[in-house]
Design goal:
This protein is α/β, with parallel strands linked by helices. The protein has one domain: Rossmann fold (3-Layer(aba) Sandwich). It is built from eight helices and nine strands. A five-stranded mixed beta barrel has the order 5-8-7-6-9. The longest helix has 25 residues. The radius of gyration is 18 Å and the shape is globular. Bound molecules: 2-acetamido-2-deoxy-beta-D-glucopyranose (NAG). 2-acetamido-2-deoxy-beta-D-glucopyranose binds next to β7. Keywords: Glycosyltransferase, Purine salvage, Transferase. This is Purine nucleoside phosphorylase. It holds the Pfam family PNP_UDP_1. One of its GO terms (cellular component) is cytoplasm.
Length: 291
């Protein structure tokens, strides 16, 4: 990674201090809204919101369907901060920039990060509109040396060689499953492995076949770097993928995916996702960090 891309501890601290001076909210939970899932932030009460462009040191989002706002507020008595729009590698951001907000959240006192994304499914038992609780991920860019933790390690955040086993909190996953059962969502909820690819193009048929063979359930262009950085600094992680399309795996298949259809499915499930996330947050015991 180029040295001008290195961000130092004081840079995160400056942004965190600025935010703390602008809002009374002291969030324990951060929610990252994926493509078309920005409405998750609408459920927050007593909102303070900041455009990314107005936050010192913050990167800027460029994707359609991503609002580019940081929203603080109250969700069923729990203080949250919500990213309406995230940063992607394919926008040209370095991975330090993509994950910049995560370390800022850590410095704000956040203990739990909820990541959401829109993803394509490779698992034949999945349907469009299914919600996949992320059990684990494959960080494909990481295989090629594209990792947000590259460069000198910042010990104040975490260790040089952080473990990634069990990174998606088992207790929160179980809790989410229970909520889905209670709410009648069980028939369209899955649990599976998310794989990150760089994008911005969707997968070729041969690439889709490869991912399928590897046992990937859903594929998308985000999430893994944020989760790696959250895990590095000891935050608890919960992740959801909304299945917005089935990845084309056969040369006989004439369908193809586009960003508009992705946004359409997001809209269809927006209320369900909002209910699930709200209920999950309300059931979290965020004081002693054991849900
Ligand atoms: C697909 O999803 C089902 C249901 O969650 C799961 O049992 C199965 O292991 C997954 N993978 C494949 C390759 O079918």
């Amino acid at each position: 990674m180029h040295s001008k891309d290195q961000i130092c501890y004081e840079d995160y601290q400056q942004t965190a201090d600025w935010l703390l001076s602008q809002t009374q909210h002291r969030p324990k939970v951060a929610i990252i809204c994926g493509s078309g899932l920005g409405m998750l932030a609408d459920a927050l009460k007593c909102q303070d919101s900041f455009k990314y462009a107005d936050i010192p040191g913050f990167p800027q989002s460029t994707v359609q369907g991503h609002a580019g706002k940081l929203v603080f507020g109250d969700l069923k008595g729990k203080t949250c901060v919500c990213m309406q729009g995230r940063f992607h590698m394919y926008e040209g951001h370095s991975l330090c920039k993509v994950t910049f907000p995560i370390r800022v959240f850590k410095l704000l006192g956040v203990e739990t990060v909820i990541v959401t994304n829109a993803a394509g499914s490779l698992n034949d038992t999945y349907h469009c509109g299914d919600i996949m609780i992320i059990k684990d991920h494959i960080n494909f860019p990481g295989f090629a040396g594209l990792n947000p933790l590259n460069g000198p390690n910042e010990e104040r955040f975490g260790p040089r060689f952080p473990p990634m086993s069990g990174i998606y909190d088992k207790h929160l996953r179980q809790m989410a499953f229970d909520i889905c059962k209670t709410m009648g969502f069980a028939q369209f909820v899955q649990e599976g492995v998310y794989c990150m690819v760089g994008g911005p193009n969707f997968e070729s048929i041969a690439e889709a076949g490869l991912l399928h063979k590897l046992g990937v359930d859903a594929v998308g262009m985000s999430t893994a770097p944020e989760v790696v950085v959250a895990g590095h600094c000891g935050m608890r992680v919960f992740g959801l993928s909304l299945i917005t399309n089935k990845v084309v795996k056969s040369y006989e298949d004439t369908e193809s995916v586009n960003h508009e259809s992705v946004l359409e499915v997001s809209k269809m499930r927006s209320e369900t996702l909002q209910t699930l996330v709200t209920e999950l947050v309300s059931r979290m015991d965020i004081n002693n960090n054991t849900a």
